[in-house]
Amino acid sequence: MAPHDIRRPFKRAAISDQQKRRELSLQRQAQNRTEAQLQARRLASSILSFPNQNSDPQPLESVDLIPEPIVEEPKTDAGDISEIDIRQAARLKGSEARRWFASQLMLPEWMIDVPDRLNEDWYVFARPSGKRCFVVSSNGTTVSRLRNGSLLHRFPSALPSGAKTRDSSRSAQSYCILDCIFHELDQTYYVIDMVCWAGISFYECTAEFRFFWMNSKLVESGACEAPSTYHRYRFSLIPVYSCDHEGLQTAYAGAVSYVKDGLLFYNKHAHYQTGNTPLVLVWKDETCSQYVIDTDNKGQFPNQQQVVLELQDNGQLVTSDDPPVVLGCLNAYFIQETGLHSGNLVRFAVNDGGLTFVDGKLEKADLHYIGKVHRARAFADSYSKIVFQYMVRHSPLRIEHLFASMGTLSEQESNEVEMVG
Amino acid sequence: MQEPTLYKLIPAIPFCIHSFPQNSVYQKGKKVMALEVTQILLSAQSVDGSVRKHAEESLKQFQEQNLSGFLLSLSGELANDEKPVDSRKLAGLILKNALDAKEQHRRYELIQRWLSLDVGVKTQIKTYLLQTLTSSVYEARSTAAQVIAKVAGIELPQKQWPELIGSLLSNIHQVPVHVKQATLETLGYLCEEVSPDVVEQDHVNKILTAVVQGMNASEGSNDVRLAATRALYNALGFAQANFSNDMERDYIMRVVCEATLSQEVKIRQAAFECLVSISSSYYEKLGPYMQDIFNITAKAVKEDEEPVALQAIEFWSSICDEEIDILEEYGGDFSTAVSDVPCFYFIKQALPALVPMLLETLLKQEEDQDQDEGAWNLAMAGGTCLGLVARTVGNDIVPLVMPFIEENITKPDWRQREGATYAFGSILEGPSPNQLVPLVNVALNFMLTALTKDPNNHVKDTTAWTLGRIFEFLHGSTMETPIITSANCQQIITVLLQSMKDAPNVAEKSCGALYFLAQGFEDVGPSSPLTPFFQVIVQSLLAVTHREDAGESRLRTAAYETLNEVVRCSTDETIPMVLELVPIIMMELHNTLEKQKLSSDEREKQNELQGLLCGCMQVIIQKLAASDATKYSFMQYADQTMNLFLRVFACRSATVHEEAMLAIGALAYATGPDFAKYMPDFYKYLEMGLQNFEEYQVCAVTVGVVGDICRALEEKVLPWCDGIMTQLLKDLSSNQLHRSVKPPIFSCFGDISLAIGENFEKYLMYAMPMLQSAAELSSHTSGADDEMIEYTNLLRNGILEAYSGIFQGFKNSPKTQLLIPYAPHILQFLDLIYMEKDMDEMVMKTAIGVLGDLADTLGSNAGSLIQQSLSSKDFLNECLASDDHLIKESAEWAKMAISRAISV
Question: In terms of domain of life, where is this protein from (chain B) (predicted)?
Fold first, then answer.
């Protein structure tokens, strides 16, 4: 047995630089992994793939009357923001931010028939009249962006990370994205939905959960308080009702602090989904909205209903829905003569022949060519909008129909049972 | 669904962190070779290379054709007193090597091979071995002793050879002294080979009795006493019960202390080795003996021969190690410690006598100790011990050392100046800055002058080292009063840069001092005092790397390491100069690759340089990639850099591969998705790295780089995933790969899944069972030692990171339902981790995160499963209440994901 070596390191640092390099590398990798995980946890499906503008067109809502500047986007660098998550998005600036936010709002379809189980599966509330926008707080500032992505306000707010002097202890990952309507009269942001709160994504949460969270968190944050130096605009919650007889009645006729513009219906189980969805519906009549019938460019009610459709390669005229609905067809000669190209948005008036439905499905439309649409317009009309506007002029879906649907449900079910017997 | 063809190659792979049975290579020989073994064994040691080679060939053939016959003839040869010593020794050596190997997997194979041998053959071999212990030839006995211990190491844990210890102990009482000596030597080796828990206490008692009796002064033979003393060194690990018994412990300690006074130097040395071992194994039992031990060691340090004196100093260093550990663990507060060893402050009590003893050794330097890598002498050991004492007692040491320094530091004899300087350098870690800073402020100017003006190389070496220690421990943003001010900064840097032109050993220490000087300015903010000197520092360091003699005293390495630290500590003001370094280092690397036809010695140096340059590039890239502006500026060099790295892989050196791999990881992080263009050329080296079982560090680093690449390429990594996954799965099932690489491989599964999302589908059927079996394996470690618990935590963290990545990767995919079948097991695993209670913070955080990820991805599909699990209640609540910010954050995420999953 040889003597045991007892030599110790002499005049040597405790760890070698090589070991240090290794450890720093591992540290960086571990940190990157953690960040990737966090990012994934906060990532929503709808954001994973940025909708390509060509393949996934979205309809414009018609409720906003104030003209919004629509910026032409250079398509060359469209890929740059295709894989952005919310956290990064909260920090986007300039045109990138505009492009990102322009595709992120959940857009309601128009209610053209009453959904089943309205009184069980749906919420209802009175939509404030104003500018639909995303409000993003991050890094000590708050920014609101209109539906097309353009900037509305930049201001300090009491939202988490919404102002420089507050919440200095909060991490950079703390940010919020709220779906709001800015109501000019009382200069208030009415929060209609919550997408992210304090860094946590709510995309895959049900509306039920989002509304619950929104109600507790927003008040807690102090954002609903009156404006102050570090809180320039007041935020306000909107009373949301279960869509039973009483809830619908209150939303429809009850007094609110804002000017109403129709009713919004949210399916309780629906996740926040970008683009248009049948799980959120808008409905209006003259009682609850000043803007039931579409106006034209000059703000006048046109004599005839106008629709905007997109021209396809094969001459078909389609809506912005996915899949698109075909409303008509232009022949090649006409296309050549008018100088139209595939992809153009074309405005038509609905002639006296109107829209013809068979078994609840649109079969024929009597359309009259008006002309090409101003290029600022990005999308064709959706099917539901065209039909709703048509119905408003001919046989509107009235509030009584909505109330009636609640009463008839059980009768229908019992009828079915009897038929079996 | 397409079946990934690659996987047909690997049917049912088991996960393996331990060695698993392999097919025995043992085959029964068909023909017995009549072989003159003696002659072949002698030929195998011939000076004639061709004769030797032929003999080795024959031995190999014999072994392959008839293992039993081979081992039998070797043991016969060893036992035969009529055979030459040389053939007997080699026979024993080959036998030993047939029973044990360094590599874990090879050792396992050999163990299995021995166990599967015919019982009759084994019995015959063992008889030969025991018989050899009685041989009159020392070499034969000694070799047999080692072989017996190897056999015992295999058989005792299997409850085989139960009569061994009994028959050895009966030898002790035999008359011939040489038999007694050989038997004690055998017992010593046996205690080294065998774990204490396979020897029953009765046998332990008898072994210890025999060994300690053999050590006793009444034992007439020095050979027996030496063998016994060396045997005790190994047997101390068996003596737990005996050290708890006052009478037995007193007896053992008395015999050991007496042995340190033996006439025979080897016995004294072996006895002090026992004391060193006792100081760490039985620290808490030492109190009553410390006064005696101090006297014995002081005498040895003063008068005895160097090997003995070195052991005596090591005893005190070892006590310091113990007390530093204890004090660090409890921060001096023992009220919270329940069952652990308290600090007895032996060093503090011995201080007034211990420090003068150590200071005296400092003046016994050897002439060229600073140039000799292997040197270890009294002055070095004493100085090292003094440094440990300072760390143990802190402020108390200062007044005891200062007079020595003041008296000697200006003396004409270089030994006195060097000794004084070394003493000052030694006490810079331990005492509080309040105590030291005033002293340093006085000494600094003196040191700077000495570094430039002292005529003696040793003094300058130690002075530069001391400056390095000053900057390491007393300079930095946390210090109240800065040592380095705007008034002296320029002077310090000028002196250090000047000194970097001195002899290699002095220049190396000056580089080290500059390293710590830069490090102290690391978090100084955007404007660093180093800024005005940045350029000249970088130029001076590059000049050092080009010195003709930079190969001596690891000067070149030190210069590059310092350059790395200077780069790491660069600020916004100086980062443009870091960018300018890129083409310079690239050119250096390019030059090393151009040199052809090198001798093996030159090639080794070349490889070392390439390793340093790759390391430097790695640091530069990581620094530049940390901010967007500099990252984009670096991108202009990315293609060329990558080309150089790829060329570096052509040389065969593990260190270079590791450094190049780390650099590529940093490059992947910097380039992001653009890294895809390098993959076609890089992939083969990636695969090579993942296959490098022998140099497992390379494999480990490569696994980390796979993670970097996944995050950089995201779904673009998909085309390479078949190959990568195949390799990773093979790695996991290998019993050759070092186990430390396996946890990161699991984490890497997570990285891959996160990158490629639902495309991970095709790997699920391989990855999931692997994860599951590893998870099960990790739960069978109850009663394990600290090391095993630590490994279990690492392994679990890896497994959990894999699950996290997989769940998040599949999130929102229509294929989510593929994961549902695995959910029950994963939840059980989480519950189990929670119930076992030995998880660390890292595992806790990852585990609760997995719960959230599972709920997030599976949603209502797993709602009821989650609600049934313990994790979703007690574990979650515990995490929510945690003080650890990261655990709490993960827990809040999990809570939200769960409430979402069960609300739907």
Answer: Eukaryota
